[in-house]
Amino acid sequence: MSKSLEKYLLGIDIGTSACKVALFDRQGKVIASGSGEYPVYYPEPGYAEQDPGQWWEAVCSTIKTVLSKSGIDNRDIAAVGVDGQSWSAIALDKEGELLANTPIWMDTRADAICRRLNREIGEDEIFSLAGNPLQASYTTGKIIWYKENMPQIYKRIYKILQSNSFIVYRLTGVLSQDKSQGYGLHCFDMRRGSWDRDMCRALGIEYDFLPDIYECHQPVGKVTPEAAKQCGLAAGTPVVAGGLDAACGTLGAGVIYPDQTQEQGGQAGGMSICLDSYSADPRLILGFHVVPGLWLLQGGTTGGGGVMRWIEKEFADLEKEEAARLGKSTLALLDEAAGRINPGSDGVVFLPYMAGERSPVWDVKAKGVFYGLDFSKSKAHLVRAAMEGVAFSLRHNLEVAYAAGAKVKMLRAMGGAANSLLWTQIKADVTGLPIEVVASDTATTLGAAILAGVGTGFYRDFDEAVKLTVRVRRQHEPDESKRSLYDKNYRIYLDLYNSLKEIMHRE
Question: 147-153 long-range contacts, Cβ below 8 Å, gap at least 24?
Fold first, then answer.
């Protein structure tokens, strides 16, 4: 038996490029953390898929690493929470075996299917129930794509899971659907938080494919002996349903009251505005918060921190060599280079539509664009313009939210991009909003861990959990002297897409 009086919480995050695992004490201090990478597959244009089995392998190896680094007894982990990327469509058979790779949030193969369903059922009718437009990125069209393109696999489907519920299933053997991930399916009633049989029939989705819905902090089951052998956790450890990564990051950033807003700087960019009443807009994304009784009005771009990873991969060989020599990260050197360029990137403007674009333009054929190049421009101009382009996409989503009646006075930043003082300041200057930065790299796993803590009584409630664990590390005030320059480039940003949209849609 473990004799420790200290208990801990484990948060697991299923991201797009890697899983992250972090062990927290009651005050939210990270005792140990780790990550495990896995690939994204792009078999055809518009396709982006992953093997959930590789998620599980990465989770198991990373949990073992974290436990080893921490030196704690696995029996001292009070509970586990899992968050994950949105809009998966993980097909399992009756034995719980994977039937295929899952299309992920960047996958748009179901575009024609969604357009057809919108015509047949009616966009307004779908939106009135689901609170979200039927677009190819969501889970809904992917399920119908299975039906029409992989009928032999479709016949064997027992349940469709999301990324976090798949890991919860591997840990506990229980099939579940948390409330915050319900927004990916357009047969989910966004007012009531329940499945709608009539819309299932209209869409052609088998009602039996849908797991029981749980509150995000609700315990689903306990780690099974088999899972314990694979991942290193103690059998019997409670596991809660968990939730959407952006929603858990919002919780981990301390956003639990109406009109507070999280700014996301992970692989995808965007924002989440906390609401205490239903308020949908077809240009944005509406989902339940992981905190009961609240919604999140969200904006999401495909080109967040992933833009910088793409630049690092494709254009930064020299910086990689220099980083190795100096003992720095490649991204830090790119950040320094961008900081030497004038605000506004001397007229270079970037559209960050690197996998089509989600809100507010909802265009699967949108493309990334650099505009304003000439012989005086350098790689550093491209890096800074990329940062500014992601900031413009944030501003675009915020302005649509304002038009829908939302109020935003400050942003709480989280995700890897928040580690860049330059990029965070650019976002403050472009949006005109002050930005507070919390624990940028661990906000999402902390949110998952808080769910586990509230669900098992480790914390009295969400208010106590946030007060104990969330701390603001720094604050960025907008520089009004840069406002007119960024306003000019923002207008170019909007005009570029409107001017190029027809060309982007040419076959």
Answer: 147/204, 148/113, 150/100, 153/91, 153/99, 153/100
Binning pLDDT at 50, 70 and 90, where does residue 441 land? confident
Rounded to whole angstroms, the maximal C-alpha distance in the chain is: 69
Q: Using alpha carbons, select from 152, 60, 153 the residue that is nearest to residue 103.
A: 153
Q: pLDDT (tens digit, 9 = 90+) per residue, 458-494?
A: 999 999 999 999 999 999 999 999 999 999 999 999 9
* Residue 439 near residue 252, CB atoms below 8 Å: yes
Neighbours of 457 (CB within 10 A): 10
For residues 412 and 361, what is the distance between their CA atoms, to the nearest angstrom? 24
Pairing of strands 77-84, 8-14: parallel
Of 397, 158, 453, 427, whose CA–CA distance to 284 is shortest?
Answer: 397
Dihedral, CA of residue 227, residue 228, residue 229 and residue 234, to nearest 10: 180
Calpha distance 359→283 (Å, rounded): 6
Which residues is 286 bridged to in the sheet?
297
Compute the C-alpha angle 128/132/135, nearest 5°. Answer: 125
Type of residue found at 15: G
Residue matched to tokens 């494919």 = 209
Q: Which two tokens stand for residue 161?
A: 């899971």
Tell whether omega for the bond before 151 is within 30 degrees of 0, i.e. cis: no
Contact of 145 with 109, CB cutoff 8 Å: yes
C-alpha torsion angle, residues 329, 335, 336, 337 (rounded to 10): 110
CA-based angle 68:72:73, to the nearest 5? Answer: 105
pTM of the prediction? 0.92
List, in order, residues 6 or more apart from 279 with CB less than 8 Å away. 286, 295, 297, 404, 405, 406
